[in-house]
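Please decode residue identities from the backbone states below.
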């Protein structure tokens, strides 16, 4: 480890996400445009794995956590966990530690795959 301070990219970026989302929604409204439709759902009739994220972000921007959870539950859980990520990143940067390598564990990879596929199946069943 060097004495050089590391840039806390997560701690800098996560707080900017709500402002970027609010700006995007404001631009859409100012231009009298609606939210874009999912190309996969339009062509195949089933939602993609990220369907509902845009509407979830709009609901979060309006402070409607229940509606946001309806549109994409995983995104809401990640939003709730973001303060932990910010604290971890600031601590990592203060100590001069690099970001850890991505997990090479088959169990971690399987867990992420199950989470993503489970969310996708939930979105399909609910007709999002």
């Amino acid at each position: 480890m060097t004495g050089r301070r590391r840039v806390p990219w997560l701690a800098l970026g996560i707080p900017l996400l709500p402002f970027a989302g609010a700006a995007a929604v404001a631009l859409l409204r100012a231009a009298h445009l609606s939210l874009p439709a999912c190309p996969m759902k339009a062509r195949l009739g089933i939602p993609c794995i990220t369907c509902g994220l845009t509407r979830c972000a709009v609901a979060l921007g309006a402070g409607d956590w229940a509606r946001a959870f309806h549109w994409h539950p995983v995104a809401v859980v990640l939003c709730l966990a973001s303060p932990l990520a910010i604290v971890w990143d600031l601590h990592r940067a203060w100590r001069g530690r690099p970001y850890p390598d991505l997990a090479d564990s088959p169990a971690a990879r399987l867990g992420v795959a199950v989470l993503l596929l489970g969310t996708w199946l939930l979105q399909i069943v609910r007709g999002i």
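Observation: The mean pLDDT is 82.
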